[in-house]
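Appendix C. Worked example: FtsW/RodA/SpoVE family cell cycle protein
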Amino acid sequence: MNTLQKKTNAFDFFSGLDIFTVLTALAASAYGLSLVYSATYYSLSDGEIISRQLLAMLITVAGGIVIALALSVINYEFISKLWPVIAAGCIILMIVTFFFGVAPSDRTSAKSWLQIGSFTLQSSEIMKVGFIISFSYHLDMVKDKINKIKTIIPLVIHGLIPIALVILTGDAGSALIFLIMFIGMLFMARINIGYFIAGFCALIVGFMVAWRTNLISGIQRQRIVALFYPEHYEDVMYQQNNAKIAIGSGGWFGQGFLQGRMTQTHRVPENQNDFVLSVAGEELGFVGAMAVILLLAVLIIRVFSAGLKARDNVGYLMCMGVGIMLLAQTFVNVGMELSLLPCIGITLPLFSSGGSSSLSIYLALGIVLSVYRYSKNQTKSLFYSD
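Step 2, the predicted output written as structure tokens:
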């Protein structure tokens, strides 16, 4: 390959790449890495430069970026046609996790992680991407008869399978995100409103039955009740109450990077992970916290925009699925940190230290970048042709 060909290939790659979305994701990850560094700074031993959590996040972010850029040149239509392999692989991964998964010391019932050497993989995070791909293809296949009952039943089964598998591993938080993704993608596929009303009623009845029959565990019940009676559940609300105090104590511009009193004394457990927004709020103030929200808002808007410009229905649905996933996780995480929602262990996209979460989000963004490229250029890749 001569120099001219190399320059042409490089130009083709970058001309079809959604640079703004990539830069937004990179900015969010860089900001997230700095917050995780501050959150884990207090725990560094003499001679240590970075924490294990930060190292794992660095590795997964770097790997995720490479994977996203690689996926961007693969035609998303080819990826969607691999849905049987992807779905089967995700189901097998969840089954293996159910039997051989490990749980954190404070949540022994949540066997949601697979131990791989010195790292752990949260299987449900990978399954989110698999579900978006398989469900998008399923919805596209039945788009001409989407509102017939014989179409709706298989779609409901498709949505319930990952939810059930995730619940079996004890990860109620991820099950909620799957439910929101499922409902959101059905809405984007223009399902008749009557089905949503029926589904909402079924959810209410199901929740009431689960509550009365103790299918909802004791700690989960306490976290829900504690939102309404926090003074009676101070131990349950300890993490969320301190997160609110940390965010509120930052004022407009914060107490300074690495200077947060609650952050640096570990008064907010898991502030490198699920409660990372409290670090931004305390040390960088309202401005720093709003910068987090703004970056995520811009990224989500770009994802939805790519979907609206997609050249076909499956590309549109894939982007809608990714956008809904990011929006749901952001909404639930911020709601948790402000004590508006119960604490259910949901990471803040690209900001929390969870390596599995960062990896799955970059996988999903890779698909969005593919939709953008092939909808913009109307070209074929080496991996697919009609």
